[in-house]
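agent: user wants the full assembly modeled, not chains individually. Plan: 1) parse entity lines 2) check alphabet per entity 3) run joint structure prediction 4) return tokens. Steps 1-2 passed, two entities, 386 residues total. Proceeding.
--- entities ---
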Amino acid sequence: MVLETQQLGNAKVGAPEPRHAETVMVKVYRYNPRAKGEGPKKPIFKVPVERGTTVLEALLWIKEHDEPGLALRYSCRMGICGSCGVLVNGQPRLACETQVEELDSEMVEVGPLPTFPLIRDLATDFSDFLLNHHRIKPYLIRNEDTIGRPVLQELSQTEQQELDYYQFTMCIMCGLCNAACPVQATDCEFLGPQALAQAYRFAADSRDQGWPERRDVVDTVHGCWGCRLAGSCSFVCPKGVDPALGIQLLKRRVLTKSTRSSSQNPKLHD
Amino acid sequence: MRESTLRSINYLAIIAVLISLALHFATHGFLGVAGFEDSLTYASVIGRYRASITAIMLAVLLLGASYHGLLGLRNILLEIKTGRLWTRGVTIGTATLGAVMVGWGLRTIIVTITGA
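--- prediction returned ---
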């Protein structure tokens, strides 16, 4: 049921309702930049909820019953694909992992992720985000690759060597860290916490020999040195990754590790 | 020059500023003076300038503070606007401003030392 704000006032349905009513008001940002003459709107919907209902399920209920044209991105519904990142009550969250009940609010306000260009409604453009991820070369680089011989041997690692970067492999590229980053909001050339944390993930991998190439990308004023250590990226990460830590470790690596000494050569096994 | 090189110099500048600033305040409080008012008399100031160690300390403070301050200004300006031309302009502009500030400051110190 869609209700305009004025109707809500007249019907007194805007007032907090008791829990047993099992409904919640969901205010959804709606805007199509291509539709000329139409500004952003925030219609309010009354959505039935039960224990465990997620924000994504509430949005899909709205799409099914009231607004078939509502644009949102989602896929796995279980916090793995990282597609359904939205702004829930002012904080970047995965809609599928956020239960309405945990918000403890009579009004749930859902908007698109800030710092990302808007496509429509809740759907944002990840092109620049993915381009920045691509720029840091998110794959293992071996010197053998450059001379045309494939790596056919196992590259062993100790447990500690794996732990050095393990948490950063948990990134699902949902973009919540970039959405929460204040530097990203002001500096459009900033690589962003996701890309920088991934740069550290590969730089810290003992099997990788691509530090000279990655260093050129991250050792800039819009790279790791752009980070002001607000820490909001780590606060919002749904997978418990600490991108702020990754960026600081990356800064230390840039300062202490020369390009010559970066060629790690782990023991090869047949 | 790499950004990390600029930051490394900045960290050294911060240490230099902290040490020289502490010494600077000490010379105004208890090192060789009777008190703060005494440290500001003309004879006291000129006397300190002509001591080579104080002159070196002031030069280090000038260099460190100028570098640290102008690198900060450069970073703020680079956040306001982006683009290759802007980045180059800001870097050259702040470097030039720094050279003028340091040059003028060193001139003052040298002129005072030599008594010209």
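agent: reporting back. Residues 4-13, 261-270 of chain A have pLDDT under 50 and may be disordered. Chain A has two domains: 22-124, 127-150+157-264.
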